[in-house]
Every structure is written in C-alpha cells, then in structure tokens.
Known about the structure:
By secondary structure, the chain is an all-alpha fold. It has one domain. Helices cover about 70% and strands about 0% of the residues. The radius of gyration is 20 Å and the shape is globular. It starts with a helix and ends with a helix. The model has no long low-confidence stretch (mean pLDDT about 85).
Amino acid sequence: xxxxxxxxxxxxxxxxxxxxxxxxxxxxxxxxxxxxxxxxxxxxxxxxxxxxxxxxxxxxxxxxxxxxxxxxxxxxxxxxxxxxxxxxxxxxxxxxxxxxxxxxxxxxxxxxxxxxxxxxxxxxxxxxxxxxxxxxxxxxxxxxxxxxxxxxxxxxxxxxxxxxxxxxxxxxxxxxxxxxxxxxxxxxxxxxxxxxxxxxxxxxxxxxxxxxxxxxxxxxxxxxxxxxxxxxxxxxxxxxxxxxxxxxxxxxxxxxxxxxxxxxxxxxxxxxxxxxxxxxxxxxxxxxxxxxxxxxxxxxxxxxx
Length: 305
C-alpha cells in the first residue's frame, strides 16, 4: 500500500511539474521574442496552465472512427511516459535496479508505437506523413543513442544509473567525454521531437503533424507525455554526465539548466530539413559515435593492461 501511495504522489507531482514547465517555456519564449508571456491569470499568470487544462478538458469530445486505437494510442503514450518515472529516486524507486538503463531503453523503444498508431488511425495525410517521419527518425537516431549509452555502460561496467554517481566523484563525464555529451544532447532533442528536430510536428508543412486530428482530453494526454519526457530526459542527462547526488542543489541546478537549454533552443533555431537530418544521423553522428566508442574501448584496455 505504501508503494502504491508513493507512485500516486509521484504521478501527481510530475503532472504539476509539467503544468509549470509549460508556463516556464511560454515565459522564456516570450522574453526571447521581446514580450511578456502569460501574466494575467490570477497572480502573475501562475495559474495559466490550470486555466489551459480546464479549457481543453471542457471541450466537447467526439470522434468518427472505426477503431478503439484512436482512444487507446494517447493513453498508451501517456502510460509509457509515466512508466519512465518509476526510475526516479522518490521514496520508493527502482533506480537502484541492476538493469535500470536497459529498462529505460526498452520503454523509449516502445514509445514509437503510440505515435505510429496515432498517425495511422487518424486517416489523414498530414498525420500519416508525420508518423512516417517519426519512424524514419527513430530508426536513424536510436542506433546512435544505443552506442552512446553502451559506451557509458562500458566505462562504469554496470547497467544501473546508480553507478554513475560512484564513478564521477573525481571528474565528470561532461568534461571527460565532452563530444559524447554534445552528441547525447542532440540525440535527446531528436528523441523528444524538439526544435530543430520537430519534424513530426512540422506546423509549417504538416499542420501540427501526427496529432492534427486530436483535441480535448486526448490532446492533453499527448501534450503531457511529451513534456514528461522532456523532464525525464533532462534528469537522465544530468545523472549520466554529471553524477551529482539526487536532491542535491548541484543536481537541481544542472537539471533546470538542461530544461532551460531545450526551451532556449526552441526560441532561436529554425527547423532542420528532413534529408539533412537523415544525412546527419547516418553519416556524421553514427561515424563519430562508433569512433568514440572504439577509442574509449582501446583506452580502457590500455589502462587495464
């Protein structure tokens, strides 16, 4: 019962955090574009996310479709995003699991299916194009992501996130493996479908992309899952490359820095062309990651011998 209560409290805290993350994003983008952002709702606009949620959830809900996949796909997307947060070190957590990294890679790999179903079941050309772009992008970058995670696992000789804190006491991987840190951050942006890699939601050519046929509560589930993934990936990047103790001030500051960096990039960079993204994933990033992995392996063998 205590574990169940812990998971419910964690879910509520994550959802509240997502609400204020959207407010933070709108504020940062507002100041980048020389405007205020939300500042009217009750006290300094702090209740704007709850107002938006109430507006979306109170919309009329209906659908014309032949399959329950239309309803189940956003639910599946939301469930997978919440499942990732089981690894977060709350009161009871699984982050000390011996195979927590493999668990994360498994859930991330399954994340492509709900978006694929959403695009296919919408029966709209824009949605199908968005989901096809997603499949091509996921195939292209997940190989790079696996090799990068494998390189880090090879250094710490463990499948658990907990070991990253033990192995970064003297020097952080963000300094020792700086090129890999940048490549990992780019891969995170591709995984999160964020600017400049938000090609499945290309508003300028796909009219919101894969979720064009979704509204009301179903759109809320898709929106929440995307922003939960942003927070989770920022946390994972902080753990893997900085190794600070959870709940320490350094960890919280670095975690917020990664979130703000993702938002800041959205405000200053244009969307990349799709063929350029494919070229970057298969020729440039893949070669760099494989060379770096071989270099780390050779250096480790030399140090051990």
